[in-house]
Amino acid sequence: MKLQLVLFCILLSVLSVSSQNIKLSITNPIAKDNSEVWFCRSIDGDPVNYVVKYDKEYFNHGKVLKSFLVDTTMFVMIADNPFLPKIRLVVSKNDSIHIQVDQDTITHKTVIQFSGNNSKGNENYYINPLFLGGKMLGVVYPIIKNAISLSQAIVQTEQLKARLFAPMDSLFVKKEISNDYFQFVKLEGDAEFLNAVLSITNKFISDIGDDKCKLKEYDLKKIQTYYCEKYDPFSDKYRNVNYRDANSRFKCVLISNGTLSSKQHLTDLNIWDKDNYHYNYAPKEIQERMFASDLIFRQKFGMISEANAIEQCNHFQYIFPNSIFLPVIKSSITSQIINISPFTLAKYDNSLGTFELITKDSLTSFPMFIRRHFAGRAVLVDMWATYCSPCKMEFAFAKDVGAFLSKHDIDLLYFSVDNENNGLGWTSDLKKYNLNGYHYFATDKSEDYLKAFLNSNVTIPHYLLFNKDGNLVDGNLPKPSEKELFYNSILTKLNN
After folding, report:
1. What's the whole-number average pLDDT of the chain?
2. Coil, strand, or helix at residue 282?
3. What is the layout of strands, in order, in the sheet containing 344-349?
4. Residue range 47-89, pLDDT digits in tens
5. Do 358 and 419 reside in the same domain of the chain?
6. Buried b (16+ CB within 10 A) or exposed e, 114-137
7. Are 243 and 193 in contact (CB under 8 A)?
8. Distance between CA atoms of 134 and 128, rounded to whole angstroms?
9. DSSP one-letter code for 44
10. Among 387, 472, 464, 399, residue whose Cα is nearest residue 425
């Protein structure tokens, strides 16, 4: 009996070592009870099996408590909502991490503070451009744009990367972050840096005729080759890193167009269409994850019909019958509770809890649309989508904007360029963010018309202003977060 007890204790010890609990807590004193907090993380504790919006918890009395198992150090993202911004962090075995969110309802500023394991590291990780993807693009861009030689471009980008990573080096030397944490973020820095370099060089190669970059196309491709070989995304070294799949896609394209020599043989799994056939250059396990994450993402954001999702799921199951992603894919295949068709005009009133479908009206002429539905009224148009985090950050100012527009007798139209299969996500978000006013489910079907109407590619968030005659008087207003500039621009344009 004693021997059995000893063996049982040993077994428990082994299990507790292999999968440790991560404990996360989030506090925001002004958060409303039952507000959703979505976690993008590994399905099973293996960083490779990362899924967007895998599970969720809820605020209760200003707090969220979350625990899950990990096998090793990994990346976790907490999706943004009205009571916290998007938060990216790195967690290791047995970590206990607390995130304090302080929102100033007057200035609309949000301050994030970390405490617990590797808190100094996560503070830097949260603000450092090297780990912020989009912001890294902004700091790499001018270096490559202004470089006058291949060697200068490489030296200066290497120096930039070293400079940005220096705070993590310092924290490690001072033993304020663990070795596991340090080694992981070092690889993360490699991968996000590679992604930024490949994105910027690709942009300059496609714009080479516009003389926007001093380097020749040959040199830009040499930069791509140099860094893709140095930080090879196919390498098992980067197996657990968040940006591995994105960089693997880049590498597949570079092999396909001849920039990189084809050391990697095609592994045709019969899962990619002709436009994405080059992804067959990726190793099988990377192809599985890329295809699964694509399908899960498109399902969650309404970018694919249910019938098409079922068809692709069945095909994926045939190729990967034992894939760990299959249960997640299948669980996401659900019928839309609310079937909203493109070009639907509606009105939402949070105080009454009413969502009124008004009509369906195709967008053949924006001025005519405004005159037809807002006759004799000035209208502010807020263009957004459920997948757009910057749009949602601007919703923090929605109450102030609504009060200003009401005072000056201006109507508000929220213009969604969402995916046409995401009617449920659209109605859910306008209620979640208390977007009182008129709503138009324009969907991405309106993209071509908008490009022609505004004579440019349309990025979101984007703000338009029509006067009482239905004429466009400003096609690119400042953002609500710019406060006085935003409000003064509206009044100036309407009074001219």
Report:
1. 89
2. coil
3. 354-360, 344-349, 437-441, 410-416, 378-384, 462-466, 472-474
4. 999 999 999 999 999 999 999 999 899 999 999 888 999 999 9
5. yes
6. beebbbbbbbbbbebbbbbbeebb
7. no
8. 11
9. S
10. 387
- Are residues 484 and 463 located together in one domain of the fold? yes
> Per-residue confidence at 496, pLDDT binned at 50, 70, 90?
confident
Written as six digits, the tokens of 341 are: 């068709």
pLDDT band (50, 70, 90) for residue 243: very high
Percent residues over pLDDT 90 in the chain:
67
What single letter denotes the amino acid at residue 357?
A: L
Q: Mention every residue, 6+ apart, whose C-beta is less than 8 A from residue 234.
A: 248, 251, 264, 282, 283, 286
- Higher pLDDT residue, 438 or 8? 438
How much is the pTM? 0.80
Rounded to 5 degrees, φ, ψ at 35 are: -70, 135
As a whole number of Å, the CA-based R_g of the chain is 25
How far is Cα 378 from Cα 373, in angstroms, rounded to an integer?
11
The residue-averaged pLDDT of 169-192 equals 97
Q: How many CB atoms lie within 10 A of CB 20?
A: 17
Report which secondary-structure segment, H or E, holds 111.
strand 110-116
Residue 83 resides in a domain: yes
Element (H, E) at 102: strand 96-103
The CB density around residue 264, as the number of other CB atoms within 10 Å, is: 15
Clarify whether residues 490 and 394 are in a common domain.
Answer: yes
Read off φ and ψ for residue 301, nearest 5 degrees.
-110, 20
* In 299-436, beta strands by DSSP E: 344-349, 354-360, 378-384, 410-416
Distance of CA 19 to CAs 49, 68, 69, 438, 490, Å? 15, 9, 6, 49, 56
Span 340-351, mean pLDDT?
89
Residues 220 and 312 placed together within one structural domain of the fold:
no
Any domain includes 401: yes
Tell whether 140 and 259 lie within a shared domain: yes
Structural domain for 356, as ranges: 344-495
DSSP-assigned beta bridge partners for residue 81: 84
Pairing of strands 96-103, 20-27: parallel
Domain boundary among 264, 298, 320: 264
| Peptide bond just before 461 cis, omega within 30 deg | yes
> Which residue has tokens 């080759």?
225
272-291 pLDDT per residue, tens: 999 999 999 999 999 999 99
Encoded tokens for 278: 């080059």
Query: How many structural domains compose the chain?
Result: 4
Give the number of other Cβ atoms within 10 Å of residue 280's Cβ. 20
